[in-house]
Design brief:
38% of the residues lie in helices and 17% in strands. By secondary structure, the chain is α+β, with helices and mostly antiparallel strands.
């Protein structure tokens, strides 16, 4: 639409299904490049992607022409197939149901990028469960414990 301008930063967070940490550092960069391609093919701008063996953080400049649930579904479905095709892991891999989506102002972009870049350091002090619940509380998102991800609090590389 003519004369329509947006600037929307969104952080997506989702986890590997079950209680196993399956994203290995030997292939995570290839996975992140693949996910970046999905994001960019849908006309979003990849600002940062990083994570841990059991979850991923994706910070994007969001294109409102695609619904967030459809984008997350595309990322999960396509990357799941990619992981299986590449045979990155001998274990059954899939993403858990659900995700978190959190919006930020442009002035917060650098802080969010640094936070995502420093996931390994951050998780030396805080579990994924603590991190995720902190995000839900910070953004005043009502939640029920029984609908949260299955959490694994120990990372093995």
């Amino acid at each position: 639409m003519a004369n329509t301008y947006t600037q929307l930063d969104v952080q997506l967070v989702f986890a590997v299904k079950g209680r196993e940490s399956l994203i290995h550092k030997s292939w995570k960069e290839e996975l992140y490049k693949y996910i970046t391609g999905i994001v960019q093919n849908h006309k979003h701008k990849m600002l940062r992607i990083n994570g841990m063996p059991d979850h991923v953080h994706i910070h994007i400049g969001y294109n409102p022409n695609q619904l967030v649930p459809k984008l997350v579904e595309e990322i999960k479905t396509s990357s799941n197939s990619f992981i299986k095709e590449k045979r990155f892991t001998p274990y059954q891999f899939s993403w858990q149901l659900g995700y978190g989506a959190f919006s930020y102002g442009r002035s917060q972009r650098d802080v969010v990028i640094r936070y995502i870049d420093n996931q390994e350091e951050h998780h030396r002090q805080k579990t994924f469960r603590e991190e995720y619940i902190d995000m839900l509380r910070k953004f005043e998102v009502e939640y029920k414990d029984e609908y949260l991800f299955d959490f694994l609090d120990v990372y093995e590389w």
